[in-house]
């Protein structure tokens, strides 16, 4: 599972104005430890995320959202990616995501969602879940 990540690239970004960066950094470090090259943008707008994806050509965009803006900001990122002709990148989301919002996020194109407090066990399990989400997304676009 982790071998599938070696030499691959991810873009990790925060949307919104919250100052909670720790989760995004933990995930970025776990992906790096699993062999991925990670580009961490910090706080970024949808346009900045698209620009990074165009420049870096990642297989994954990881978004952290903790300020309650996930139903507007994350679909905006996905729509901006689509508008740029980018539809082969898996978008995963972590943060303060109510269960009632999961279906709307999946419908918007989020490949996997990791709400705050997700009981994923060791970080390697989270990495495995991300690998699975990326594989599913790539299969859809073949």
Description of the structure:
Strands 2-1-3-4-5 form a five-stranded parallel beta sheet, with helices on both faces. The chain has a single domain, classed as Cobalamin-binding domain (Rossmann fold). The model has no long low-confidence stretch (mean pLDDT 85). The longest helix is centred in the last third of the chain and has 18 residues, at 123-140. With 142 residues, the protein is an alpha/beta fold. β4 (90-95), α4 (102-108) and β5 form a beta-alpha-beta unit. Helix content is 44%, strand content 20%. The protein is built from five helices and five strands, in the order βαβαβαβαβα.
List the helices and strands and how they pair.
Blueprint lengths: L8 E6 L7 H12 L3 E7 L2 H11 L3 E6 L4 H14 L6 E6 L6 H7 L3 E4 L7 H18 L2
Q: How are helices and strands ordered from N to C?
A: EHEHEHEHEH
- What distance lies between the first and last C-alpha atoms, to the nearest angstrom? 20 Å
Strand content: 15-25%
Count of DSSP H/I helices: 5
**Strands ordered across the widest β-sheet:** 2-1-3-4-5
Within the CATH hierarchy, at the fold level, what is the topology? Answer: Rossmann fold
CATH architecture heading: 3-Layer(aba) Sandwich
Sum this structure up briefly.
The protein has 142 residues and is α/β, with parallel strands linked by helices. It has helices spanning 22-33, 46-56, 70-83, 102-108, 123-140, and strands at 9-14, 37-43, 60-65, 90-95, 112-115.
What are its keywords?
alpha/beta, 20% strand, 5-stranded parallel beta sheet, globular, Rossmann fold, 44% helix, 142 residues, single chain, 5 helices
